[in-house]
């Protein structure tokens, strides 16, 4: 499944482009711009599984660094600071990774 099966290619392009500058990533604005906030829980879960590259059932810190690339191949890598901030925002149980429910909560709170 591709990200464009769930989200509009145009929205993805706009959202990824909006955060092309280093240290500019804001997950709340990004999830809203990309149209994820308006999606059903099932669609949010599909996006989670696309971002979970190693299919571990979690999005770990090394996968978060490449979260924009998960939406668009030409997306930039997040900085270490941005990656750690995103992990801190999503990792509600403190296990160092983001599970499907934690991801859904992040999207809902954005």
From TrEMBL:
Any GO CC annotation of this UniProt entry: cytoplasm
Superkingdom as given in the UniProt entry: Eukaryota
Keyword Chloroplast attached: no
Statement: the UniProt record of this protein carries the keyword Nucleotide-binding: no
Pfam families: EF-hand_7
Record: residues binding Ca(2+) 1: 52, 54, 56, 58, 63
Residue numbers binding Ca(2+) 2: 91, 93, 95, 97, 102
CDD domains: EFh_parvalbumin_alpha
Keywords: Calcium, Metal-binding, Repeat
InterPro entries, sorted: EF-hand-dom_pair, EF_Hand_1_Ca_BS, EF_hand_dom, Parvalbumin
Matching SUPFAM superfamilies: EF-hand
GO molecular function: calcium ion binding
All copies of domain EF-hand, residue ranges: 39-74, 78-110
Family listed: Belongs to the parvalbumin family.
Function noted in UniProt: In muscle, parvalbumin is thought to be involved in relaxation after contraction. It binds two calcium ions.
Protein name: Parvalbumin
UniProt source species: Ciccaba nigrolineata
Gene: Prvm
């Amino acid at each position: 499944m591709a990200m464009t099966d769930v989200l509009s290619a145009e929205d993805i392009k706009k959202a990824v482009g909006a955060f092309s500058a280093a240290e500019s990533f804001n997950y709340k604005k990004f999830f809203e711009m990309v149209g994820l906030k308006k999606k059903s829980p099932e669609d949010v879960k599909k996006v989670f599984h696309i971002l979970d590259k190693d299919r571990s059932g979690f999005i770990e810190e090394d996968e978060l660094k490449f979260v924009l690339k998960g939406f668009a191949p030409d997306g930039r890598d997040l900085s270490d600071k941005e990656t750690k901030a995103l992990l801190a925002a999503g990792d509600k149980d403190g296990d160092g990774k983001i599970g499907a429910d934690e991801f859904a909560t992040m999207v809902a709170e954005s």
